[in-house]
Amino acid sequence: MARQYGSDRQARRRKIDRSIFAIVCGIVAMLVLVFGVDSGQYNELISGFTRACRQVTDSTAQVPDGQMIIHMIDVGQGDSVLVQTSEANILIDAGEVGKGDEVLEYLNSVGVERLNWVICTHPHSDHLGGMTAVLKEMPADNVMMPAYPESLEVYERFYLELRGILELKEIPITTAQPGAEYTFGELKMKVLWPADWQFSDDLNDWSTALRFSYGELDFLTCGDITEKAELQLLMSGAAVEAEIIKSSHHGSSYSSCEEFLSAAAPELALISCGKGNSYQHPHDNLLKRYRQHDIKWKRTDVCGNIRVICENGEYTIKTQK
Question: What is the count of structural domains for the chain?
Fold first, then answer.
């Protein structure tokens, strides 16, 4: 059963708008009593105050109703994605150690005051190294993490600090369960991976994979899974079709295999990678596969921050550079 989140946010916003309008009318009425104005001036004052207050409330709104915005935040050689609607703010990873402040600055710049969900795809530092810094400052309601074998347990400092801040702030942790669905107004988030029956000794393959659906558009993000996990994900029967995908493992040649791309059939791939990185990400072999499947792409090392604005079944792309 799908879980419903944030359905009363619009009602709260309408209530705030009505309260502001009532205050405006009260102020104008006082001006009329004290200074005396004719009906034309009164109507003009009401109209002007209302426009000003509406601009203030609109400026604090995260996203206009009817839109989903996918933000690929440029964190260099790492990953950080924000999925945002008027009902939800969902942060997926936060880049390497030292990148958390940049992620936090970006979140503030797009009006995020609270995160409904924080998705920790897998405990590698280029994905979760910056998350502690984010959560120290940014309130969060829920955190999702994958289950993985004890033999792959991580004891690195960045991860221990992250677990510590989650405990300190008493943020509930949910284990990623394939098939679980969460609903935020028009936005649906479905967990696809990892499955406890898979066999892999690569922590990348235990990444949390999610499919976001908004109207007629879908966005697929699979962390750093490799071809081995991609094929097992397809075997599970999960629906992976999506117009927009996050390129797994920063555009590695070992991810986004032919079978997976054929099943997902994306139009656009978003690649998060560092300029001049030593891994050759995105790899030429991957880009060749994208060309063969007629997939266009945007990459953070060239474009900086990337925004994909989804509305009425269509999307537009805006880049920093």
Answer: 2
> What is 204-227 written as a DSSP string?
GGG--EEEEEETTEEEEE-TT--H
pLDDT in tens, 226-258: 999 999 999 999 999 999 999 999 999 999 999
Phi-psi region of 77 (alpha: psi -120 to 50; beta: other; left: phi over 0): beta
3-state secondary structure of 239: coil
Other Cβ atoms within 10 Å of 52 Cβ, number? 11
Token readout for 267 is 């139009």
Q: What are phi and psi of 301, to 5 degrees?
A: -70, -20
Distance between CA 78 and CA 122 in Å, rounded?
A: 12
The alpha carbon of residue 321 and the mean position of all alpha carbons in its chain are separated, in whole angstroms, by 20
Longest CA–CA span in the chain (Å) reads: 79
| 208, 193 contact by CB (below 8 A) | yes
Whole domain around residue 54: which residue ranges?
Answer: 3-60
The whole-model pTM stands at 0.84
Q: Are 113 and 122 in contact (CB under 8 A)?
A: no
Higher-confidence position of 242 and 53: 242
Rounded CA separation 214/83 (Å): 11
250 vs 79: CA distance, rounded Å:
8
59 three-class SS:
helix
Amino acid at position 217, single letter: L
Do residues 188 and 298 share a domain? Answer: yes
- For the CA atoms of 282, 284, 289, 292, what is the dihedral angle to 10 degrees? 120
Q: In this structure, are 192 and 52 located in the same domain?
A: no
Q: Please report how the helices 39-60 and 9-35 are oriented relative to each other, as an axis angle in degrees rounded to 10.
A: 150
